[in-house]
Amino acid sequence: MERIDCLKLLAPMITDELVCIGIAGVNWEWRYLSKHEGNMTVGTLGHTLAVGTGMALSLPNRRVIVLESDGSSLADLPVLTTIGTYRPPNLKVFVFDNELYSGSRISDPTATAHNTDLERMAAGAGIPATATVRDVESFGVQARAAFAEPGVRYVVAKVGEGAAARKLPRPRIDYLETKYRFVRYIERTEGITVFPEQR
Amino acid sequence: MTPELAQRLVAGLKDAGINFVSYLPESRLSDIIPLIRDDPDFTMISTCHEGTAVTLACGAALVGKRTAVYCEATGFVQAMYNLQSMAMQFGLPVLFLISYTGSPGDKANSLSFSLWGRLLEAQIRTLGLQYRVLEDGHDLETRVSDMAWAAQFSKMPTCLLFTGEFTSFPGMLRRDRNTNATS
Fold first, then answer.
1. What pLDDT is attached to residue B182?
2. What's the pTM value of the predicted model, to 2 decimals?
3. Average pLDDT value over all residues in chain B
4. Rounded to whole angstroms, how far apart are CA atoms A91 and A154?
5. Dihedral of alpha carbons B158, B24, A195, A180, sign
């Protein structure tokens, strides 16, 4: 199963969801497929899941989709316990696990290539709905359930390396532009002011 | 910390518009935890890692919450990566409430804390963050509010450091220290 085939399935399902996107391949592929204003590219190792969790806990009326990788997930395992404790029902997590640090150029294996099982770690942290899928059809079942059913969900999608993502055009916007675009979208759709007026 | 100071600190946070607090508990300022947790105007999220607390706060700030992270000096070091690569990189306002463990007036100071106490202010200055050291309750509400708004206007983290004098956390008695020193 290739990551981009999962993302192609997921992209048309997005309407007003907030989408937090991780680092490297999943970022490049999602940004290539989706121009959704509610995309928030975190793009730094180990932060995407906690950013999405903070959003989900703060805006319980909005569904938050997190698109993460195995390497980045492994860099912030403590957040799993926070999710397991509070179980925000609007948080839907998809971890694309290629078992590699693909950004290392030499595709060094992550711990999931050996004995580490992210789904079992999530379940052990107290997340009630977890799954590991290995084909696009099963991914589709989980994706549709994430949109149809309430409750926090954590799905590990075992995928190939996805090295073709390296050939996709890279985003031209920086962290600040990403932030402001996302914040303006929140302000417009929630009718709130995120940053105060300047005096 | 006296109950009065704890109540004034939490009231100051509330007046400053803070409505999301993520934290990893410690001993010296912990009287504020039940006050925040039981107040419906706050969302309070416990974590098992201060770095996670920072990134959670960043996510909350992106969708309109006014955020604070409560930790001790060791936790500030633990959170350094998240502080720099999320809060500072993206320019997000987060008010740090830091129990100044290892500060000169910390009665519970020990080898476990003194290193962090010595380094804390230098680390904050190196990051270029605004901060204030609070040794007592003088004008507490205003000082909390000022630093919370400084975070909002600069879109950067700011820090309040609560010293041993402020927290008045009971540590070793003087005679015990003397006993240890001569034994």
1. 45
2. 0.95
3. 92
4. 9
5. positive
Q: Nearest residue of A to residue B153 by CA position?
A: A198
Q: Beta-strand (E) ranges in chain A?
A: 18-21, 39-41, 64-69, 91-97, 100-101, 108-109, 129-133, 153-158
Please, which residues 29-48 of chain B have a Cβ atom closer than 8 Å to chain A?
43, 45-48
Residues of chain B contacting residue A199, judged by C-beta atoms under 8 Å apart:
153
- Residues of chain A predicted below pLDDT 70: 199
Q: Is A82 helix (H, G, I), strand (E, B) or coil?
A: helix
Summarize pLDDT for A35-58 with one digit per residue, the tens: 999 999 998 999 999 999 999 999
Residue A156 amino acid letter: V
Degrees, nearest 5: CA angle B77-A56-A177: 70
The model's pLDDT over B139-159, given as tens digits with 9 standing for 90+, comes to 999 999 999 999 999 999 999
Q: Counting every residue, how long is chain A?
A: 199
The dihedral region occupied by A126, where left means phi > 0, alpha psi between -120 and 50, and beta the remainder, is: left
Residue A26, CA distances (Å) to A22, A161, A195 in order: 6, 11, 29
